[in-house]
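hi support,

uploading two proteins for the ticket. first:
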Amino acid sequence: MTDSFVHLHNHTEYSMLDGAQKLKPMFAEVERQGMPAVAMSDHGNMFGAYEFHQVSKGVDGVKPIIGIEAYVAPSSRRNRKQEFWGPGGQRAMSDDGEGSKDVSGGGRFTHMTMWARNVQGLKNLFYLSTEASYTGQFPAGKPRMDMELISEHAGGIIATTGCPSGAVQTRLRLNQYDEAREVAVAYQDIFGKESYFLELMDHGLSIEKDVRDGLLRLAKDLNIPLLATNDAHYVHEEQADAHDNLLCIGVGKNKDDPKRFRFQGSGYYLKTAAEMRELFAELPEACDNTLLIAECIESYDSVFENVDEMPQYPDVPEGETQESWLRKECLKGLAMRYGDPVPAEVMERFETEMTVIGPMGFSSYFLVVADICRHARDNKIPVGPGRGSATGSIVAYATRITELCPLEHGLLFERFLNPERINPPDVDLDFDDRQRDAMVRYVTEKYGDEYTAMVNTFGKIKAKNAIKDSSRILGYPFQHGERITKALPPDIMGKSIPLDGIFDSAHPRYGEAGEIRTMYENEPEVKKVIDTAKGVEGLTRGTGVHAAAVILSKTKLTERIPLHMRAKDGVKITGFDYPSCENMGLVKMDFLGLRNLGVIDHALTNIRENRGVKLATVDPGNGDTSVTVIPLDDRKTFELLGRGDTFGVFQLDGGGMRALLKLMEPSRFEDIAAALA
């Protein structure tokens, strides 16, 4: 396939507010062009690696190549001062607006393109990107590696001199050939001569052309193989304007601002093999080497496969297994709950559950969750009595994960765990929101900082925000965007109609979009905004932290996934979202902070201090006879519920729920459960 080509330098939508390539259209275009492989190389992160690999599975004949365009510190990643290599410091921006000729990022980082040759290389890239975020951020949000870190984790990685912001090109641009050669020699030694390439781009920029002779001299001098790449940021050529709009959103500038950031040159899309070979007609080997790299890339499947990462309870006594210790803890708890001897029907239910929990390898999960709940109780941190299907487990009741007897309330264990559906247990833990951080800290400290992390979320540019952003960058007043978004059909359960759905008669909500269609057809300024919004809708805007989820693993997380650190508070966060983490076998627990638990705790404290009455919502289980447990059959409470006086009552304070309660006039606990169901 000497007439083919492989795009190795691609920025997907995970190069947030810079890359505009959605993965499915990207793979579809590569498949259409008949290319044998395609790479991802996002700015400073590996967030898209899991999705990239999964999408590739649905495309025949296109090999996925996972990489990164790394930020590399000019010297040490721990240095927090700007560094410039040119005489007298930073040079001014060039006449064509391409930026400083010196170290990019205002003297903070250079660039380097790297790809994983194999599983070892992919794990090393995960680690490098993680460590860059943990120890090299400067400025905040820019994770930087350095040569020392790279040299320690270079196995299985293919690398290049990078784009025009790479260290070699920067040195050449400053007429520092000897220094450029020194950098190249160092990286040849680190990666091996067969795994280090000299990257060439051509978008018609002077910063590319000015160093071309120096790069070719260096390639000849050091026998560095050439590699042609295209700095692709969008899939199709006609998406250039939409990408430019995305840049405007990213930097918060109007499109007609002459001083705003914009791409100079052209051609930042997935060019055909013919276009790339014509561009590098004098250097055909630079295109041939893209195919060479693609051929040597091995499968990454084992990195992303589902592996049992169930965390182990560390306090199991010597001579006991996770399962045997859970059994002993449960028998002790059952005797506390039901008396000794434990009734036969209770033991029968217990044994039934254990025949599922043990063989499925979930014993440690119950021990870990029980330990978390016990720590909360021992430290007087209000913890919820249990919610969802977990209350159907008598093992959870015996270990005080939940506080409702499943036999008394007719709750089914099979709704929680089923041997025919091999999913890990999912227990939602409710804590006083004032103490949630303390509980997360306990888990992190007990089970290990390297084995726990908060969970990443990805914010998308949804229809309403796409319209508001587009209106703003086009220079219209705030009210213009607001007027358009108010004409959209209302969201349903937080989901808005996609902009294409407004004009698609087959969309189920098409009929609700008549007002905005009329505006689109009759008002040119509205049409301009919506057309602009279509080009950015659905792209990834940025990352966040899941409100409740915490990931636990028995393996160091850096050996399984990339992570990153939030600069403002040092919180460590997974690089993948929680469905991706769970699909790889990592265990997610939800730590929810509820204000209501704090209110209840405060009320109980006031009653005790002012009236001398000790009340508890559940049996404390410590034999304290001075404590009165609030019953579940209090007549006055049911009368209050029947009146709909439930403002501030968790899950019962909505208008619809209050109306239902008035109609139902609940008189027993089961009525409340039915209403919530």
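and the second one:
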Amino acid sequence: MTMAKYWRFLPLLAVGLTAYANNTPEEDKEVNRKNVIRLVMKRINNEHYAPKAVDDQFSRIIWKKYLQALDANKNTLLQSDIDALRKYETLIDDELTNPSLEYFNAIYSVSMQRLRELQEVYRTILAQPMNFKVKETIQPDRSTAAYPADEAARREVWRKSLKYQVLKKMLEIQQKDKNKTDAVAEKEARKSVLMSTDGLFKSLLSNTASDDRFSAYMNTITLEMDPHTNYMAPIDASLRESMLTHRYYGLGLELTSKEGDIVIKRVMPGGTAARSGLLHVDDRILSLSDEKGAMIDITGMSIVDVSKMIRGENNSTLKLLVRKSTGTEKEVTVVRGEIKEDGNAAKSAVISDGARKIGYIQLPEFYLDQTRPDGAHCAVDVAKEVEKLKQQQVDGIIVDLRGNPGGSLDQVVAMTGLFVKTGPVVLEKDRTRIGSYPIQNGDKPLYEGPLAVMVDEGSASASEIFSAAIQDYRRGIIIGSPSSYGKGTMQITLPMGKVGDAAKGIPDISYGSLALTIKKFYRINGHTTQLNGVIPDVIFPSRRAYARIKERDNESALVADTIEKAYYMPYPGDAELKKVAAAAQDRINRDSAFNVVKRDVEWLRAHDTPVYSLEKNAFKQQLNEIQSYNDAIDKAVKLPADKQLTIKGTSIKDATPDNLAKYQEWMNNYTKDRYLAGTVDILADMIGK
């Protein structure tokens, strides 16, 4: 969670102050990367909440984890490569103390060589028809397997992997067109897999490959300190800032992926793309211009990487080569403009429950834009939604924080003050002191009626601060998955670079930025959400119960501990809340639909690393069995037609036809939500008859 942002340049040591007039571009890059290492390690050692010792043991961990980052499925490097790289196993700590790139350069060189070798391997394999009547098996997850002993063993790994991919694609093709024969579908599937693999390798071997691998190397180091200390290259730092502020400069396009291509899914009204009239839904983007104007083929790039290229400076131009739905290709030039992203803004609606009205507020993240006076503040937006619901005379309010990853600490403190009268919201602890963040609302909360808060495994950081405060004050009831994410740390974002000299024509240099963990936060009762998360008062069975996606699943996560609790006064009525929670839990435990979720999730947990047959009929049977369990869960968590929720809108800002359609679509998505319906029932119990 971002606590604050200090946007200033950091000083470099003498080696970083010299102009590199006589250096080659590669030599400049080497010097810059050493400066990144120097600055990152200096910041970690001086300011991280609990920096780990950078010693031989730390070196061994980085050595192993960077190998995993580059070759997670152990299908690229050979065992001989691992043996040759082992000499660096206890030297990386020295290379971080006295910046050196010897290990990085060595592993980069060998990995690129192996990738180039594999291009011929996969193309040769995919050039030949595949026999899906042979009885053989594959375990797609090779993370625990050994590295291939030689090139022949590696080729066998790729043969089975590509056969698995082709078989999956073949079944997809025949699912769409049941009249296609195995021979036709197999040929189309091989062509599709070849295109996607070509695209992947084009990205892996692109001219940004070295920078991408270096960012991964730095993050292997920073993330070993804790899961939230991470390095961002300049373009990633810019993207992070735009996500938090909900503003960026781009074209106003929503993208999707179809058959390996990046396709325009929606042209946002008011964006420069819409105003230009040059880009349309279903246009396939083939190439984009880089910062120097050169056209870059985007085949194989992810939507995230393409989005990064589309974003840029205000009023800058971007060239796009697109293939129209007619099949013709056209190069267009569009000027970037400001995009205000309101898709993750707070929204509200009213749910009818018999004679009762239940207010519903969804907040996908705790956003804050401090860059301008009219910047987005989520607490202000939530207050506006509460006012709308009060005007509708709702009997209670649900705040939905499912999937909310956190955000601004200031905003969660302010938002808590909308519902709680007075007192501390959260405690913090750095290396030397303990502090608190109090409510500042003049002892006048905006809403004092019945309140429920929904959370799940994706509710983290600021979401956990809010739900923990509501729970500790006994202000409302917390409902959701067995626990929230479990992040109890605070970060600051520190830019790194060197100030240039405009008079001498020397530009500023950016080395990116570092998100650094500097504090831990604690509930007002002295306990922590770190690792533990927030345990709801009422627990729903979760389809993601078996997924390793929480803080405690990270080996480098900071430990959970306790401090002295703060002075605060819980609301009266705790006994009644417990009574409501107990009755609700009993109801959920007896619910047949939720029992289907619980049963089938357990089956999926037991089969989460399957060994697949590569014989078509057996493979299809395996997929159908797995899909049947997922389908049963999907059906169970959706309400039948006669039980669906009745949801009506309040009002929205900028009520254009496009925005109204999106708002209606948002409400429609929740009419079948059994978890929301269960929460409505619980809030109804709190309200009473």
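thanks. also noticed: The chain has 19 helices and 23 strands.
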